[in-house]
Amino acid sequence: MKKINHKSDICIIGGGLSGVCAALEAARGGSQVILIQDRPVLGGNSSSEIRMWVRGAGNSFRESGIIMELDLDNIYYNPHMNAHQWDAVLYSKLRTQPNLITIMNCSVCDAHSEQNVIKSVTGWQLTTYTWHTVEASVFIDCSGDSILADLTQAEYMLGREDKTTFAESIARDVADGKHMGMSCLLQARQTDHPVEFIAPVWAEKYDDKQLEGKNHNCAYSNNNFWWIEVGGNTKDGIEDTEECRDKLLSIVYGIWDHFKNSGHHPEALNYELEWVGFLPGKRESRRYKGAYVLTANDLTEGTPFEDTIAYGGWTMDDHNVEGFDSYGYTSTHYPVKVPYPIAYRCLYSANISNLMFAGRNISASHMAMSSTRVMATCSLMGQAAGSAANLCVKYNVFPADIYNNYIGELQRNLMNNGSYLPGFIREMDRIMSRVTSNLTDEEFARLTNGIDRPLPEMTNHVELSENQPIIYNINEPIENGYALRIFFDPDYTRSSINPDNYKNNPFSQKSHRRLNFKPLNMPENLAKSYTVKATLHDNSQQILKAVNNNHSYLTMIDLPAGTKSVELTINDTYGANARLFSCDIIKKV
Asked: How many CB atoms lie within 10 A of CB 549?
């Protein structure tokens, strides 16, 4: 068989949203990155193969960073929220990113380590019958199933802990090896005519009593049938996946048969079954043991970590291990502090020196993981892992050294690149002063306060009408390495993005297609076109950037050496005055 050897700075295993965000952040930081993905598409549970909604902390603390960038790309290119177009958005993002190679359809099945340091991993690419071996300095496992745990002897955890393990009062009285199960979803489309459905012979048969308490009415667009869940009580979360898939499909088609043919759901008459997922979406399997284990107490108390690198806000959503076989609603929700910080120490191995991880497999208790596992939160951790890996390459150190010596630089890089860290304020480079009379002192302070989002206690944005400039003088001559950083309003509430009157996700995926479906809009306060102009030391002027059809919320524009002043002018928006959360000059690291 053919063999190909690769060398890179960073190797990422897994192309779900945590792996995608890790790869983009690392490659943008200048490292050479290889991403190995075992599927033909990217996005993991959000991909067209599984189609789970992206969830996170909720609209009050909707995530920024790369996941916001990807979502705005999806609104712009894919306003009808077609799942395959979402695949294309992610594929395009990685394909066009310099310093990044993606190896698709490749399953990592071997690793070579020396003295607790991973030297290489090897995967089998089923489309080309090729073995790919990747040597790297840092490895980030975003596979969800922690594939490198068995291959490298990295410490990991399985199952549900008892109350005493991490002093969690909401944990079980007795520990066990059980876990949350997996689901195969379905999507339906409403038509203007009756649609017949004939169930396959292997589909289960259900009556109303068996489905009592379960919301199996697809006329409600916020029902994606997540509760069709098996495998948590007796099955291995990895080894028994194929058997669980077969069981899930028999349930899915049985429920749809009941929905269409029982005569008890007249609203189903004009619906057709448009898609069924044949790849189960997983919630839980192996979790790595890191330098710190995040616990339920950290989530409820909002522990203020000195090494905060991300945050969560989804409830601790602990699914019943009996899954579909249990009665009624099959999850218990425990409240958390919104947002709660996540520590960097949860992202690197306790015993393998150059192993990091991001996603549902981070170092967390079962109860804490029941919240951190949702994809927007995983994306934030993926971006943090990619940024930390960059620093490992930059300083030729291990991930633990970043915590000991460079955590401030990591946090500064993350915040400059759009991430919000609870309890932290982005540092300003005080090299400019306001000269335009269009901004009040209060507005100038908002744009330069280092907080890039609305908070409960402050509005924190500035509105600009068309052709109203912001002009900054530079207090002292600058050399290369400075940039104008602009953070436009991406509409954290989504009130201008989703025109539909039924429930939708804070990100751009849908469940079912109804006749009254309305496509998404771009955020109305986002700048659609804008111009940035610099005045140089010789008083000449230079247009640094002129953007049309903008769909990005964050931009950093390099300033030439000798820039005396810089001017931003909004030319057009998507419907209302432009809003900015930040506009300042930063020193690029």
From this structure: 9
Position 329 scores a pLDDT of 85
Tell me how far CA of residue 34 lies from CA of 9, 15, 194, 427, in angstroms.
8, 11, 49, 31
Under a CB-based contact definition with an 8 Å cutoff, are residues 151 and 122 in contact?
no
Compute the C-alpha angle 489/373/242, nearest 5°.
130
Q: What is the dihedral of CA 545, 558, 420, 472, to 10 degrees?
A: -80
Q: Decide if 376 contacts 55 (C-beta within 8 A).
A: yes
Residue 465 one-letter amino acid: S
What total number of domains does the chain contain? 3
CA distances for 140 relative to 275, 288, 390, angstroms:
33, 12, 11
- Can you give the CATH number for the domain in which 559 is found? 2.60.120.260
Residue 161 lies in a domain: no
- Kindly write down the DSSP assignment for every residue of 238-273, as one continuous string: TTTHHHHHHHHHHHHHHHHHHHHHSSS-GGGTTEEE
Give the pairing type, strands 100-103 and 33-36: parallel
Q: Return the C-alpha torsion angle 519, 525, 531, 537, nearest 10.
A: -150
C-alpha R_g of the chain: 25
Q: Is the pLDDT of residue 220 over 60?
A: no
Asked if residue 342 lies in contact with residue 312, where contact means CB atoms within 8 angstroms, the answer is yes
Query: Residues 421-439: what's their mean pLDDT?
Result: 82
Average pLDDT value for the chain: 94
What is the distance, to the nearest Å, from the Cα of residue 455 to the centroid of all Cα atoms in its chain?
Answer: 21
Residue 177 lies in a domain: no
In this structure, are 453 and 532 located in the same domain?
Answer: yes
Structural domain includes residue 422:
no
Looking at the structure, do residues 220 and 362 belong to the same domain, yes or no?
Answer: no
Asked if the structure places residue 134 within a domain, the reply is yes
Closest CA to 118 of 291, 292, 348: 348
The domain boundary residue, chosen from 259, 282, 305: 282
pLDDT digits (tens, 9 = 90+) for 433-472: 777 767 888 998 899 999 999 998 888 999 998 888 899 9
- Report how far residue 579's alpha carbon sits from residue 524's, in angstroms, rounded to the nearest whole number: 9
**Looking at the structure, do residues 571 and 437 belong to the same domain, yes or no?**
yes
CATH of the domain at 108: 3.50.50.60
| Residue 345: count of CB within 10 angstroms of its CB | 22
Residues 6+ apart with CB under 8 A from 543: 531, 532, 533
Contacts of 96 by beta carbon, 8 Å cutoff, 6+ apart: none
Q: Which two tokens mark 182?
A: 């997996």
Instruction: Report the distance separating Cα 398 and Cα 28, nearest Å.
Output: 20
Q: Which long-range contacts (CB under 8 A, 24 or more apart) does 394-401 make?
A: 396/137, 398/348, 398/353, 398/354, 399/138, 399/347, 399/348, 399/349, 399/353, 399/354, 399/355, 399/356, 400/291, 400/348, 400/353
Looking at 256, 282, 308, the residue that finishes a domain is 282
* Token pair recorded at residue 573: 């928006």
Domain that holds residue 383: 2-156+347-416
State the pTM of this model.
Answer: 0.97
In whole angstroms, give the CA distance from residue 43 to residue 262: 36
Based on the fold, state whether residues 456 and 544 are members of the same structural domain.
Answer: yes
